[in-house]
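Long-time lurker. I teach an intro course on protein structure, and each term I like to show students one example going from raw sequence to a predicted 3D structure in token notation. This year I'd like something fresh instead of my usual example. Would anyone be willing to generate the tokens for the chain below so I can use it in lecture? Attribution to the forum is fine with me.
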Amino acid sequence: MTGDQDRIVVGVSGSLRNLAALRYAAVQARATERTLVAVLAWIPPGGEVAYRSAPCPPLAQVWRDCARQRLQTAFDQAFGGCPTDLKVQTLVIRGPSGPALCQSADQPADLLVIGAGARGPLARTVHGRTSRYVLAHARCPVLAIPWTRPFKTGNRALRTLEQEATAIG
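-- Reply from a regular --
Happy to contribute to a lecture. Here you go:
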């Protein structure tokens, strides 16, 4: 039905906002029997220009290891570990996330899944660079998964229960 080249590529940032995209990509990978390719891009603190002015390979290795750990932590938070029921490939790429995702999902048959990020003008300015870049430059279909606030309703319900308990007691 599908070949080994059929992939679902998902950008992983390690943030709570991104877990919905990672989970949805896994659901699609299972349903279509595709390989799930999880990509986490990283740049040195201060950017590449700052690193080039004072390069330190051991420090770059520490940052690379931290990026790998963030990718593993994202799988732990989303699934309790790496899913064993589907083929998973992980990539940790040094560079800006938008270009890294577009280079990773370079086949027309790929599906690139990204988190859509927050809404509103300020949020789009701060968080929307990767999704805008990917939507403008991807060479395959892109699926942007919106983020919802999973804890807001739970916190409100908890506060309501606490208030009711206080009123009763």
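Some talking points for your students: The two ends are 62 Å apart (CA to CA). Residues 16 and 74 are 9 Å apart (CA to CA).
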